[in-house]
Design goal:
Elements: E1 7-16, E2 21-28, H1 33-36, E3 43-48, E4 52-57, E5 67-73, H2 77-83, E6 90-97, E7 109-115, H3 123-131, E8 137-144, H4 153-162, E9 165-169, E10 177-178, H5 185-190, E11 196-200, H6 203-215, E12 223-226, E13 242-243, E14 246-247, E15 254-256, H7 257-271
Parallel strand pairs: 7-8, 7-11, 8-9, 9-10, 11-12
Antiparallel strand pairs: 1-2, 1-6, 2-5, 3-4, 3-6, 12-15, 13-14
The structure holds flavin-adenine dinucleotide and FE2/S2 (inorganic) cluster (FES).
């Protein structure tokens, strides 16, 4: 559906949740069937009058009362203004947009790799896996620059009780794990090869994780990445989010790695652009 008209959204609360990040709870006044069917990994456009709109991922998708949450990092004008709002502020909402993570319930072993704020788009699948009875077993490897940069503090405390959840830091304090998430793959793979990788974070981390999983024998069809591109319309009209012949706002932001490689190969052939960023 081409959805360009914002709907009314109320800000219920927000609290500090990691360096320069806040956790927001919103309420859609009249949730539609599509809102209630939103999937983890999909996103919405948040409209802040006077500041425009920007895409954000659901941490939790809308419930029957229209309540949902998002983790937002202060970047520029819109997010800074949002941080200053009080509960009760009225905003605008468009969505849900894009494709979510693939259904993973048939997989026996799922590995989620997240970097920094990239934990937010994975929150819904981690929550779903922690509620799911065997045989699905989820392991998470989460990398952050340092301990204060971690996000989703309340959720992480819950997940650490429910599943193998490795946290690793670029700058570790004594007693903490150090290094990139990839440096802990031996430990994760020791108990068996994952049959699905879900990855979200800085693009170099995602690509390195994908390559490492390929090297260890996982097929590219079992590897999924969530790509961030500049987005304006969110519905495949403006062309700001092209990756090759694909609109990341409609076909993504989650992509299967083999499909991503095809798109990037198409881009490189067309423009000789370096294969890391949008083209
Ligand atoms: C599908 C999707 C989901 C997202 N989910 C989240 C989320 O859950 N939480 C969150 O904090 N952010 C998320 N983002 C990023 C967020 O939309 C941007 O940071 C947004 O532009 C912030 O608006 P702003 O006005 O505060 O900053 P702006 O003034 O728009 O940007 C500040 C700086 O960030 C750069 N920038 C902005 N957007 C992008 C981009 N897409 N790629 C690279 N650089 C960019 C700008 O060039 C500028 O330097 C998501 C983006 C996408 C595409
Ligand atoms: S954001 Fe406009 S086409 Fe994707």
């Amino acid at each position: 559906m081409i959805d360009l008209i914002p709907r009314r959204l109320s800000l219920l609360e927000h609290y500090a949740d990691g360096e320069d990040s806040r956790h927001f709870t919103f309420r859609l006044e009249t949730p539609a069937a599509a809102d209630l069917a939103a999937l983890p990994g999909q996103f919405f456009m948040l409209v802040l009058p006077g500041f425009g709109e920007a895409p954000f991922t659901y941490v939790s998708t809308p419930d029957a009362q229209g309540c949902f949450s998002a983790l937002i990092r202060r970047m520029g004008a819109l997010s800074s203004a949002l941080f200053e709002l009080d509960a009760g502020a009225v905003l605008g909402y468009r969505g849900p947009f894009g494709s979510g993570w693939p259904a993973f319930f048939k997989a026996r072993r799922v590995l989620a790799v997240a970097g920094g704020c990239g934990l937010a788009p994975l929150a819904g699948v981690i929550d779903a896996a922690s509620r799911q009875p065997e045989p699905t077993q989820l392991s998470v490897v989460y990398g952050a620059r340092h301990a204060e940069a971690r996000v989703l503090g309340r959720e992480r405390a819950r997940w650490q009780q429910a599943m193998p959840f490795i946290e690793t830091f670029d700058r570790a304090a004594p007693g903490q794990r150090e290094g990139s998430p990839l440096q802990h793959f031996d430990e994760v793979f020791a108990s068996g090869m994952p049959d699905l990788l879900l990855c979200c974070g800085p693009e170099p981390l995602m690509l390195a994780a994908a390559r490492e999983c390929l090297r260890r024998g996982m097929p590219a069809e079992s590897i999924w990445l969530s790509l961030e591109r500049r987005m304006h319309c969110g519905v495949g009209l403006c062309g700001h989010c092209y990756i090759g012949s694909s609109y990341a706002c409609v076909d993504g932001p989650t992509y299967r790695y083999d499909q991503y490689l095809e798109l990037i190969a198409h881009c490189a052939a067309a423009s000789a652009e370096p294969p890391l960023h949008s083209c």
